[in-house]
Amino acid sequence: HLPNPETSSSLPTPPDSKSDPPPASPDKLQPNNENPATPPSEKIPRDSPQNTPKALASNPPPPILAVPTLNLEEPIETPPVAIRPAEQSMNGSTPQVASTSTSTSRNESTPDVKSGGLNPTSQSTPSLSQPPTAPKTSSLMPPPPPPISRLQPNPQPRPSGGLAPPRVSSSPRTPLSSAASARLAPSGSTGLSTSTLAPTPLSLKKNSSSKRVILEPGYSPLDWAALAGNPKNQLRGVGLPPGLLRVTPSMLKTQNGRKGRDAWTSYQGKVYNISPYLPYHPGGKGELLRGAGKDSGKLFQEIHPWVNWDGILGECMVGILVSENDVQAENALDAMD
Ligand code: HEM
């Protein structure tokens, strides 16, 4: 910090101050500060009295000298300076609690100035208001304003000054949020659209390898539904005892659709009469008869597990499949004969 104020004090002196008395330097500092604040003022000082010409001579050096002072501080302090204002607000609440808690953030700042720890920490914020107020304190104070002014000169018109602060704090936040939202929106929409389109290709594949047959007129699924919806049609078969039969595997085997017998099949422990459904089966009579007299569970699941068996053949249920030693099943079989 010492070299900086010295350089700042020497800055006004070199060219112009040599001709002018040094005592005026404190007063000059203020006009100098005012002048750099208004760079276009160079024309004005020429017209103005001695004070103004001094300012003219001092004007060129201060901006030049102010730049090096800023450079010296910036490499070391500039990064913390930008961070400090935010940290200071944090420290404002934390310091009262305990010094130990802020050990990490203070490690860099504390070694520089302990006595002025409060001042330097507050420098950045107060510096903005203080530069016009006090010259002596300004020795420490000038450093903070130059970085700001330095940022301003480039953007002074407006762009950089407004851009610089947002770049540090707000700019990264906004792009991230916007980018994140933008990324999320397209990805989500595309995923949903593709998922909705997925089913169609599957249906196309099924049609390509379809073994469906052309059903005779009057044997559409709707016709079957109308037929099964009427219990009077006795889809279980004619001459059967009331209630569910106990069917053994041997009994099932005899019901193969030959010799005037209805075709039965079992599925998940239940026995169905599939003869009424033969002309309605989309896969053809031959395919359906592959399960006649035995269990069709395996074939059914291999070909069309999505088909609701009971929803179609519920009215065709003859009974339940039982073990071969079931006496009641034999009696039922005798009753059928
Ligand atoms: C041994 C038993 C069975 C065999 C071997 C069989 C075979 C087939 C075959 C090859 C198809 C044509 C599939 C395609 O589109 O390429 C089919 C379709 C169909 N079968 Fe079966 N089937 C059997 C039992 C049944 C039963 C018991 C029912 C009714 C409960 C049934 C209802 C259907 C239906 C609704 C379709 C049309 C499915 C669709 O197009 O999505 N099948 N079956």
Automatic annotation (TrEMBL):
InterPro entries per the UniProt record, alphabetical: Cyt_B5-like_heme/steroid-bd, Cyt_B5-like_heme/steroid_sf, Cyt_B5_heme-BS, Cytochrome_b5/Flavoprotein_Rdt
Residue ranges, annotated region (Disordered): 3-210
Domain Cytochrome b5 heme-binding: 244-322
Sorted UniProt keywords: Heme, Iron, Metal-binding, Signal
GO function terms (MF aspect): cytochrome-b5 reductase activity, acting on NAD(P)H; heme binding; metal ion binding
Residue ranges, compositional bias (Low complexity): 120-131, 164-204
Pro residues compositional bias, start-end: 12-25, 141-158
SUPFAM superfamilies, per database record: Cytochrome b5-like heme/steroid binding domain
Cellular component aspect of the GO annotation: cytoplasm
Pfam families in the record: Cyt-b5 (PF00173)
Biased composition (Polar residues): 88-98
Similarity remark: Belongs to the cytochrome b5 family.
Protein name from the UniProt record: Cytochrome b5 heme-binding domain-containing protein
